[in-house]
């Protein structure tokens, strides 16, 4: 998609990809057979602004996203989406000689409807709690979240590794390192064009690793693990209700974004200002067939959602550019009305004066 299309707010659908992991050692030991086939050589199209991994617990979401970062894995085939995206972003920044860039990252988790800042660097977990507020300019903002400026992939990966250590995980019968929270790793990239009046555009890249949907009978969860699973499923149910509401025929009615903090956090990603990709992670085992079908139905509904992404420009810089354009238009009109009779034009800048001089040609004496 070109920048011209994005600037007009063209409506685009949420993109959906399906990732099928191999049978796990446990599934092979239990005699599970593969129940899902893959059609190869099918075209796949994705945009990386919000990338959302959804699926049953143990289906490979954290591995796919690369949230549980292991140093050195970014150069291997097993690298997740986050290391790959970070590398692409910094390679793109290095290739843009006419622009200056500021890149900041944040890393948060939603655990039992409480939002924690994973980069706060505090020993007391309760001191890492942050909250969601409405942004007067539209959407939501996270008050008090740590945003760390980074200048390289290595710095970014160290922050990801540090944050991942503080994320809530636990063992269940289906996953020895089950994520017990939803995690969002974000990069805020601000671009300033040094040759066009310092115009500023910005973008946020959200990489979302959702906790997996669970059935207590399969996970064997009890006590605290059971309560965690209840909260996980409640948030995913609210997300499903938002997706269903956005897919309803005949226009949009009430969209229940406020039913959970998860849906509020993803408000721009679903039906808002974002290019969004959902990666549906499924298990091939026949013992998980029901959950795999549920995930695929979930993803099928998500691809019917229409987003309307726009270019995010700094309002002051955009207004200044607009005024400069108006000045240029007035100069052209004045030049035409003078018809080369030597009328005086007052320029807003030396650059404008030089441009007008070229347009006008030698002065009439």
From TrEMBL:
Keywords: ATP-binding, Coiled coil, Cytoplasm, Cytoskeleton, Microtubule, Motor protein, Nucleotide-binding
Calcium keyword on record: no
PROSITE patterns with a match to the protein in the record: KINESIN_MOTOR_1, KINESIN_MOTOR_2
Membrane-crossing segments per the record: none
Ligand binding (ATP): 55-62
GO cellular component: microtubule; microtubule associated complex
Record-level Gene Ontology MF annotations: ATP binding; microtubule binding; microtubule motor activity
InterPro entries: Kinesin-like_fam, Kinesin_motor_CS, Kinesin_motor_dom, Kinesin_motor_dom_sf, P-loop_NTPase
Subcellular location as annotated: Cytoplasm, Cytoskeleton
Annotated spans, Disordered: 341-365
Any single Pfam family the record assigns to this protein: Kinesin
Gene Ontology terms: biological process: microtubule-based movement; mitotic spindle organization; spindle elongation
Residue stretches making up the Kinesin motor domain: 47-305
Gene3D superfamilies: Kinesin motor domain
Family as reported in the entry's similarity comment: Belongs to the TRAFAC class myosin-kinesin ATPase superfamily. Kinesin family.
Name by which UniProt lists this protein: Kinesin-like protein
Native organism: Portunus trituberculatus (Swimming crab)
Gene: KIF4A_1
